[in-house]
Amino acid sequence: MKDKFIQELGNQFAILSQLGRGAFSKVYECINISTKKLVAVKIMRKYKLTTKQLYFAEQESHILQKLNHPNIVKLYGVYSTGSFLAIEMECLKEKSLAELIRKRSLTEEESSIIMQTIFKAVYYMHKSHIIHRDLKPENLIFANKDLGSLKIADFGLSTEFELGEQLDTQVGTIIYMAPEQINCKKYSETADIWSCGMIMYYLLTNTHPIYVSGDNLDKFKDKMNNIRWNFTNNVSDMAKDLFFRCVKSNPIERYSAALALNHPWINYCNNRIPMTHLEEIRLHQDKLKIKMLCIATIFLTNIALKSNTTPKICISTFNEPPSEKISLIKPRNNLTSLHIPRRKPKNNANTLKISSDNTSLLGCDLPKGNNITRSMGNLRFTRNNFNKGIYLCPINKKKSPRSADRLSFV
């Protein structure tokens, strides 16, 4: 098939590998020879297509030509030969959303990022008067590892609509179809919002609420009439609120994509501070509380030492009243006073006692004060009030006045 296709196109593409296949098409990873760009080419044999399938294939290329959004797969070209119809698109080699959900459970924050991306693309489609009609995790593919790189693909069942127009064609994947589609009633673009709600439920719970094996429409209708939404305890009320607004049975009451994008759950989760930062802030606050408590303890202790009162400190949390008063110290009257004797200078052979502390007798005035030093010739005079002395020592000695040979004036 691919060799004949390349021949008919005149060697326009170099096929590298097969990316996937559908009911009436195959998708290949190719290099466009003229642009040197890596692309995906969806190839369909015309003779295998029914009139309806051919219509949808042409409709897909027509709609993709009208759309230009970062979260919608890009169309590069459409090729028609005698035997084949080919659509050249952006190559998305990462996982689909369905593969990601099967691989691991997603957090609520991750689910919010994904749903915001989907709602942005759906809002753009509806604003461009296009209904997708087959929104499901298998048709949502990541361009790279970033969750915000999700793109809507496979517009094979999409169609254009006029404002206020009601459609009645029953197409799509049963377990993601809105009740009005299942019951063959008229529907509008709000059918896509129901599909978004089903995708959101799948993200939050990792299950589908009304899954049935195969395309058994009768079984699905029975489950739809007795549907139960079972959320785990870790799903927030805001997430549930948005979900229930997207899956209203009455399509008139159902949310639009614009309203969904302005919902608090979408905005709150996507602007939330990472938990690591919150933990750092809490840790800093705890350290600050301990520091302030220590400062308060020292401050109140000093006050108590100068008075006969016993300080009290009330310790409480932010949301609770003070529960207990804790006495930090005993009253001053119960404290034992300590006598610290002052150290006097030793009398040794190098110490001279003089009855006057007026150093002007030696030709050098040394004013009163502590650790005041004056120099005269080879001698240094130092007053030390703690030992009540004036010490004289040679300048060339590096020892302190206490340990050096000195003259003491007392």
From TrEMBL:
Domain of life: Eukaryota
UniProt-listed InterPro entries: Kinase-like_dom_sf (IPR011009), Prot_kinase_dom (IPR000719), Protein_kinase_ATP_BS (IPR017441), Ser/Thr_kinase_AS (IPR008271)
Entry keyword Transferase: yes
Keywords linked to the UniProt accession: ATP-binding, Kinase, Nucleotide-binding, Serine/threonine-protein kinase, Transferase
Family matches, as PROSITE patterns: PROTEIN_KINASE_ATP, PROTEIN_KINASE_DOM, PROTEIN_KINASE_ST
GO molecular function ontology, one term from the record: ATP binding
Residue span, Protein kinase domain: 13-266
Record: residues binding ATP: K42
Family the UniProt entry places it in: Belongs to the protein kinase superfamily.
Subunit organization: Monomer.
Name of the protein in question: Protein kinase domain-containing protein
